[in-house]
Amino acid sequence: MNAFPQAFLDELGALFDKETLASLLLALENTPPVSIRLNPAFKGNICVPHEKVPQSEFGYFLKDRPVFTADPAFHAGAYYPQEANSMWIGAVFSFLREKFYQNEASIVALDLCAAPGGKTTDISSRMELGDLLVANEVISTRNAILFENVCKWGLTNTVITKADAQKFGKKGPLFDMIFCDAPCSGEGMFRKDNDAISEWSTDNVVLCTQRQQRIVFDVWDALKPGGFMVYSTCTFNRSENEDNALKFCAEMGAELIEFEHPNKDLLFELESHLYRCLPHKTPGEGLFFCIIRKPDGPFEARNRETSPKKKNKKTVSVSMEFDGFQSLIKGEETYLLRGDHHDEAFIQNLPGLVHPGIPAGSVFSGKWKPHPSIGLLKNADFNLPLIELDDAAAMQFLKREFIPMKPPTQGPVIVVWKGHRLGTANAVKNGLNNLLPMEWRVRSNFTAQSIVEYI
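RE: above sequence
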């Protein structure tokens, strides 16, 4: 562990009393905990030593870090390795949905800085049947990782975009909730990343503070009157946390909302309704969050875009039925969203639209070619045959290799490992042609080993 910068220590000393500071610094010297969050659609038990994460009904601490890449259940979306304190954001969504939107059949939320997908998958699991989540990531490589994790999570309530915050603001009031996990100086991750310690500086804190202000002010017009912004960082300093939150409220006429949760006593407040996770109080990394409510009243745009909404008029004829889903077309790909009530014009008009749902497949040379994602959907069946793989064949599939066997059928199939769907393949006479996306493949040799058991 590198020594903490003196300016950082001075900053903490100005915020906390000596006892709190000593406990915090001791925690930061320890090995960070390992935690996962189960997919609610998963039916099974964890079979490694674990204990519950108090702020999440689906979260567990593990005693040791397993090789997640060697676990087919991880690739099947049975669970997501997520930092424990980040799970508070999912709890915030549930609180807001239940307290303020209990009579609404559907809401639309934006996860503005979504990659790699921990908060996105958590929020999507907590949504009601009619809700829609827009997961945005502006960096292309991270957007691709977000897409992979959303597909593996297997829920069809998420749209993926790639746009700057300002482009959302120009569209006007689109969202009931906006989750802004703002890029920050990362002080809360010091014990996980020694490079973050060596790269830290007071100048970088200033730059991050200014960047966060720009992002929030740019996206603010995309929040509906009366809607909620959940602002969060993984850092400790006041500038990026309390000071920024108070500045947002003062300049935009907004108010802070009290968060209600049975384990709220685990949180630390320097000021009312501004919440910190400190590693010695809640096992996990540093996190700050608050809930900012936009005032009710008529919308007054500063920079609203006035261009007409675009509709994608291109259609294709497909040979599969998608009962219970709404299908949308982008390019040659057919995408699915659960339910049939979503406003297609709203979705097509989102800035930087990349994936308007979960891809189902496309028509190639007059034949239906299913996308591997449909083999990962939870609680959905498209009448494709299922082929069970043993441990060795499952790892072959995850490495995107041809799987020699004598399949009972030919054509598109879904491959399964211990009841969990891994994706799709094309069954031929002598085996399975692997349809797993090349960028998703496992690049190392592992023996399949799982941290879960199945019931």
